[in-house]
Design brief:
Two copies of one chain form a homodimer. Chain A has 259 residues and is an alpha+beta fold. Chain A has two domains: 141 residues, Sandwich (Jelly Rolls), CATH 2.60.120; 81 residues, Arc Repressor Mutant, subunit A (Orthogonal Bundle), CATH 1.10.10. The first copy, chain A, is built from ten helices and eleven strands. In chain A, the strands form three sheets. The first copy, chain A, has a four-stranded antiparallel sheet. The radius of gyration of chain A is 19 Å and the shape is elongated. Chains A and B meet through strand 4, strand 5, helix 3, helix 4 and helix 5 of A and strand 4, strand 5, helix 3, helix 4 and helix 5 of B. The structure holds a DNA duplex (30 and 30 nucleotides).
Chain lengths: 259, 259
DNA sequence: CTCGCGCCTTGATCAACGTCAACCGGCGCG
DNA sequence: CGCGCCGGTTGACGTTGATCAAGGCGCGAG
C-alpha cells in the first residue's frame, strides 16, 4: 500500500523524527510501507526476528509477554506511537508479542535502514536515545505501580489519571470495556468489579462506562498519586501486568472512541 | 580524588565507551571524579536531579523504588556497570533510589558533558542507544520473570543461572546472603526458605551458602528456563521486586566474593 | 566459656488475589 | 416474542505469599 503524505506528516511529527533532516527522514521512509490490520491480528510473536520498526498510526496495539502458557499484557499503545524500537536497534529477537486490538494502520520502517541512519546521523541517534530513555522510565514507573500498589490503589490512580485527562470534571467515561481495563491494571475482571465496589466508600459511582467522582480529595487520599509513578505524559509507554491469562497495565496514551 | 589510569582503562572498555574516539572519551571524563563510598551509602533518592552518570567500578549498588512507605528493590548492579543513564540523558529527576551495598568505588561523569557529546558524536550517541536498548530489554525480561512466574520458579531459574555461571557443576555457592537473594527474587526471607525446602523434591540440597543440584533435568523441568527471560548476558541490568520493604530481583551481573 | 546478636528457619495466621460457578441485564437474531 | 450470548457482577473457595512469633545455630565480645 502506498503511503499517503498526510500519514507521513504525522510520522514526521513524532519526537523520534522531528529533529532529523528531511533527507534522513526520506531515506528512513523510502523502504517503508503502510499496512492495515484487522482487529486481533498478530503482528509479532516473542522470539521472532524484528525486521521493521512499527509506527502505529491508527487503532491500538497490545504488547504482551508469555511463559509456560501464561500471558501477561505489558502495554497498550494508541496512535501515534512507535513500538519495539529496542529490538530493532539491537537487531535482536522480539521480547514481546504484538497484537492489534482494533483495526489498525501501521507504518513499517525497515530496521536495516534505521540502524544505518543510527550510525550516521547524530540527530537521529540522539533522538533515539531520548526516546529509549523515555520508554525505560515508563517501564520503571509501571513496575513501581504494579509492585508497590494494591489493586484498589491502582484503580484509584487510573481513575484520577483519566479524570485529569478528561477535563477534571466530576464525571468521566471509561475508554475501554471493563474487561480490558482490568487487564490494563493487572487484575481479573472479577477483582476490578470488587475494586470498583470498594471505591464506593470514596465517592466513586459507576454506571456502565460512566464514572462520577463525587469526592476527589478522598479518592486522592487513598490513591496517593506520585509524579514519579503516575506522570502521564503524552506518548508514554508503560507496562505491567499479571500472571495467568491476559492482564496488563499502562499509563494510558489516548482515549479512543468507544464502539 | 584523582582518577587512576587503570580505572579509566576499565571504564574505557565498557560497551558504552568502546566505540568512541579517544578525544571524546577524554572530554567526557575531563570533569569526572572518582569517589569511594562506604557500605549503605545513599547515592541518590527518587526525585533528585541527576547531575552525573554513575559508573560502578567496584562494589555493588542497589536500585530501589518507593511509594507510601513501601520499598521495592528494582535492581542490583555489580562492577563494571553504569546506572541512571536514562535519567541523565533526559536531564530528568531520578526515578529510583541508589544505595551502595558494600563499599564501592564509583566514577561520576558530569551529565552536562554527556548530553553535549550525545548531540555531537554519532558513535557515542549510537552506543548510548544500544546501551539503553539493552537496559530496556532487561527490564522487560525482569517484568516477565516477576509476573509470570511464582516464587519457587524464580528461585529454580536463579539457581540454574548461577549454576551455568559457576561452571555447570553439581554444586554452586550463593553469591550473597540469603536475605539479599530473597530481595533479589522478590520475596521475603521466610518464603525463600520455604522455596528452598520445596525444591528438595527436585534434587536441590542446601547447606548454608552451598547448593548442590543432584538432578538438573528435574529442576529444569520445573524451572522451564526461557532465553527470552533468562538470557544472562554480561552487563545486563534487570529488575523487579515486591511491595512492602526491601525486595528485589535481578539477572545477576557478577559473582562478588563472599565476605 | 558464655552471652548476645544476626541470620536462618519453622510454624501459625492473615490478606490479597485468582478461580469457579451462578446469575443478571441488554441486545441481536431467529 | 423469546432465545441465547456476552459483559458484568456476586459469592464461595483455594492458593500464594506476607506477617508475626518463636526457636536454633554460629560467631564474636566480654
Amino acid at each position: 500500500m502506498s503511503i499517503r503524505s498526510a500519514d507521513l506528516e504525522r510520522v514526521r511529527r513524532l519526537p523520534l523524527f522531528v529533529p532529523i533532516a528531511d533527507e534522513v527522514f526520506a531515506r528512513l521512509t523510502a523502504g517503508a510501507f503502510l499496512q492495515r490490520f484487522p482487529a486481533g491480528a498478530d503482528l509479532l510473536a516473542e522470539g521472532d526476528p524484528v525486521d521493521f520498526l512499527y509506527v502505529l498510526l491508527d487503532g491500538s496495539v497490545e504488547l504482551s509477554g508469555t511463559w509456560n502458557d501464561k500471558e501477561t499484557t505489558l502495554a497498550v499503545l494508541g496512535p501515534v506511537s512507535t513500538f519495539i524500537l529496542a529490538a530493532v536497534i539491537l537487531d535482536a529477537p522480539a521480547t514481546m508479542n504484538a497484537r492489534t486490538v482494533g483495526r489498525s494502520d501501521i507504518l513499517m520502517i525497515p530496521g536495516a535502514a534505521l540502524r544505518r541512519e543510527l550510525e550516521e546521523d547524530v540527530r537521529f541517534a540522539s533522538a533515539v536515545a531520548l526516546e529509549l530513555s523515555g520508554c525505560y522510565q515508563g517501564v520503571v514507573r509501571a513496575i513501581k505501580n504494579q509492585k508497590l500498589r494494591g489493586g484498589v490503589e491502582r484503580l484509584a490512580n487510573y481513575l484520577l489519571a483519566q479524570r485529569s485527562r478528561q477535563g477534571s470534571g466530576a464525571t468521566l467515561t471509561l475508554p475501554y470495556e471493563k474487561r480490558f481495563i482490568a487487564s490494563l491494571l493487572g487484575m481479573t475482571p472479577e477483582n476490578l468489579s470488587r475494586a470498583f465496589a470498594s471505591l464506593a466508600d470514596y465517592g466513586v459511582e459507576v454506571d456502565g462506562p460512566h464514572v462520577t467522582i463525587s469526592r476527589p480529595v478522598a479518592l486522592e487520599r487513598l490513591a496517593k498519586p506520585d509524579p514519579l509513578i503516575d506522570k502521564h505524559l503524552p506518548s508514554d509507554i508503560t507496562l505491567i501486568s499479571k500472571p495467568d491469562r491476559e492482564r496488563s497495565q499502562t499509563l494510558e496514551t489516548y482515549r479512543p472512541p468507544r464502539p
